[in-house]
Design brief:
Blueprint lengths: L5 E5 L20 H8 L2 E4 L1 H4 L4 H9 L6 E5 L14 E4 L6 E4 L5 H8 L9 E4 L4 H13 L3
Parallel strand pairs: 1-2, 1-6, 2-3, 3-4, 5-6
């Protein structure tokens, strides 16, 4: 049986998602909660997650389900926020477990990259540009491949 691929994006607070992904009347403070119902993980650049404090990390943990994963750029294991214990991984942008895609990515090429996966280490499939149409096509591809 193939291991599921975690689908996510580079950040959840994208201006272009304001009315296209998030309901227009949704308060900004609820965006992560909504995002975590649609995605399995989120990649956060170092400059984003390092600016947060313990209270923000606690809010992030409270706003997401227990299996949601925060991929924190450049975080060493000993530097992961305690408030996100078991829910965060330190990772570099070029880590081989990350498979980035954008609106220009060929689904055929993506399928070829995903096909040989067995029970390997977790793989994170991340939208670089947040193109919602491509995210939905990739989600469908993952479902068709049983991932």
């Amino acid at each position: 049986m193939k291991q599921p691929v975690a689908l996510g994006a580079d950040g959840w607070d994208r201006p272009e998602w304001s009315d296209a992904f998030y309901p227009p009347d949704m308060p900004e403070a609820w965006r992560l909660t909504y995002y975590n119902t649609q995605f399995d993980c989120v990649f956060l650049a170092a400059q984003v997650w390092r600016q947060a404090d313990a209270a923000v990390y606690e809010a992030w943990a409270a706003d997401t389900h227990e299996h949601f994963l925060f991929l924190l750029e450049g975080a060493r294991p000993e530097a992961l926020p305690e408030e996100l214990a078991g829910r965060a991984r330190g990772i570099s942008r070029d880590d081989p477990r990350l498979l980035w895609f954008d609106r220009q990515t060929s689904l055929k090429t993506l399928a070829a990259q995903l096909a040989p996966l067995g029970n390997e280490a977790p793989l994170y499939l991340l939208s670089r540009d947040g193109d919602l149409g491509q995210v939905e096509r990739v989600r469908t591809l993952l479902e068709l491949m049983g991932l």
